[in-house]
Amino acid sequence: MSEVMKWSQQFPMNRQPTAEEIDRFADNPLWPEFRQYLKDAYGAEPQPVYSRCGLEPGWNLKFKKGSKALATVYFRPGYVTAMVSVSPKDEAAAEAALLTCTDATRTLYQNTASSKMGRWLMLDLTSPEILEDIKALLSVRVKPAAPNKNP
Hints:
Structural class: alpha+beta
Distance between the termini: 49 Å
Oligomer: single chain
Strand content: 15-25%
Radius of gyration: 15 Å
């Protein structure tokens, strides 16, 4: 049985996972930091959505800033995967941001086909450096709020 099936079987359409169950299933120390960043920088709260997609069936979390999609997060045991899209109008800014990103993220971007809807990058949250890459790409799509400097 595939890992994806385990997620969708553990949490079928009629059984939405709680935030605690998602955290436990993800078992990824970077996930809480990423979730908190989305809240602090964009005011984005997770919106659970059930997907019947054949590649990633089951519950995922969508994060939005107003009406603008920031990321969709998918879960597999020990993995958190963020799908970040880069629209055609943002490609030049994304390519500039990629100069500070890891080789893996730059390669993923180059190997992801561009379409009228843009590039959909599936980034596994596997290191603090990849988390920084995700933040950099999100900032191209929507500028984050300035950090609060008050203690």
